[in-house]
Design brief:
10 strands; 4-stranded antiparallel sheet; globular; mainly beta; 6-stranded mixed sheet
Length: 126
């Protein structure tokens, strides 16, 4: 069974930082684009950032550009989302997801993402 395992969420004050991690279980994701998505209470899920299978091509939601950094450690099979200067509006459940892409240097939020992780709660509050 293909699964993704996330970690790193928590409670942080505005202006603080968190780093989320995502790893695959049951498969290798060398030819998958990886995306981070979030869903706040009462709102639709939105794409936050994605990274391509090769070449580390990235994309960011405008609201997080310049504050969040997505990276991919190919050796340790892990994708990270470094979140800095966090704001209360960043609060939500964050999910990572994988989309089969072959070898590509581009990613989008509209790909066929499957599987998904279980989600990790991020709360930004004083």
């Amino acid at each position: 069974q293909l699964q993704l395992v996330e970690s790193g969420g928590g409670l942080v004050q505005p202006g603080g930082s968190l780093r989320l991690s995502c790893r695959p279980s049951g498969f290798t994701w060398n030819f998958y684009n990886i995306g981070w998505f979030r869903q706040a209470p009462g709102k639709e899920r939105e794409g936050v950032s994605c990274i391509s299978s090769i070449g580390d091509g990235t994309k960011y939601l405008d609201a997080v550009q310049g504050r969040f950094i997505i990276s991919r450690d190919h050796r340790n099979n892990t994708v990270f989302l470094q979140m800095n200067s966090l704001k209360p509006e960043d609060t939500g459940v964050y999910y990572c997801a994988a989309a089969w892409s072959g070898q590509t240097t581009r990613c989008t939020f509209q790909e066929n993402f499957d599987p998904w992780g279980q989600g990790t709660q991020v709360t930004v509050s004083s």
